[in-house]
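Case study B.
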Amino acid sequence: MPTSAVEDLLRELTPQVLGALVRRYGQFDGCEDAVQEAVLAAALQWPSEGVPGNPRGWLITVASRRIIDQMRSDHARRQRESALIDTTEPPEVPDTDDTLDLLFLCCHPTLTPASQIALTLRAVGGLTTTEIARAFLVPEATMAARISRAKQRINAVGRTFVLPRGTERLEAVLHVLYLIFNEGYTASSGAEVHRTDLAREAIRLTRMVHARLPDDSEVTGLLALMLLTDARRPARTTPTGDLIPLADQDRTRWDRRLIGEGTELAKTSLGGPALGPYQLQAAIAATHADAAEATDTDWRQVHALYLILERIAPNPMVTLNRAIALAELDGPAAGLSLLATLDADERMAGHYRLLSVRAHLLEKSGDPAAAHGLYLRAARGTASLAEQRYLQARASRLPH
Amino acid sequence: MKFIINLHINPAVLESLTDEEKEAIGDGHGKFMEALKESGELITTLALVDPSQAAVVTVRNGQTVATDGPFVEAKEHLGGFYLVDVESRERAVELAAQIPDAAIDGLGVEVRQVMFFAGDLD
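Model:
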């Protein structure tokens, strides 16, 4: 087997092996070291000597040997110190999906979202601490502290590893994957709009979850949403990095292959027993993808989907997006009156997105002076340089 | 989300503090820094020399002139900052409140989100 194929295989197997070991032995740190040693041994041996019949079993055996050696030497040390003997053998564990278990563990509710993200990328994604630090623009020492703290907390949670695979836990995992994707797709601050590597990694991990839970509609929906969103990436910025809004994008530059796959998945997910927020967002993205030109958009459908989304997962940002769809359907005045309902919402008052959407609708309704002022206020309110440039450009096109 | 926590100080206010109070501020900053490092929220922190050591640089008609002294003449000046990476604005405010300066009249602790970030971090 060529080296690159071995590397792909190892990347796929590493989280499974780590999951199996952590479940069996606890000690996140120790298991991670042992798995890394086993993977290194495999990377050296397999390309020349061939891949063993059961590569996953091979890795688990080698890594287990390392960790047992380590435990024995720790144990011997403790024994010298305390003369206490523990002869219990590690219990046999049922054969479950270790990658999923590892994901559930990394997204443990006792961790902050930033730690969940870091640990997921490290343990499941196999990214190095340096890579993760670079992706989030923080010093390596900062990221290392975050990851090590997360591991300590996981160790403290102990071997409560037989986790209920409840919907709540899956929700946490999907949310973390969604956050990783968003961080990659819309860098929250800074000069660049995209951090492609994070978006790609989020898609890879979501594919992995989808392969294991193909019947879960929200997993399917999230994967569809990511693919449909990522498909627009080539059309979303100018060569100089300026943002291009959906309505002005050159749709021939959208990635047709991703749209095809995303649309199929979105359809499949809607066939499930219950509707969830990711499915609905994927359906909205698929509706946009279906329009060859912005003017062909089925706004009635977009609006209806936002209305359902607003009912099952009320959120002012959803209402804001519904206002845009409503304005397309019934005119800017209808959109503006819906926006007015958001003024009382503390989360939205003065938010740059509310200001910019209102500016946009005022511009359409023929009030350029008011729109101009709001675009500039919105520009002052955003923490993204690309958004700021875009909003300033919108303002400068208007007479005032 | 990255935030800078600016520490605006007033030398007259600092001089009026007792030695114990000054020491408590120093200890407070030490503990704050350690806690931030441990939580993985600290990007960097630094303290600046007295503004009397500043120079304001102007270029007019291609001529560079450096004038000794601060740009803004004020009782307060920027004494240093903490640059942090946190979950939310609320967390940045919560951290700012842990800085000893925040409890002293005449010293200003100001939180502002970072919009652009470049350069090597390590």
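The interface with chain A takes residues 1-2, 37-44, 85, 87, 113-118, 121-122 of chain B (CB under 8 Å). The remaining cases will be described in the next quarterly update.
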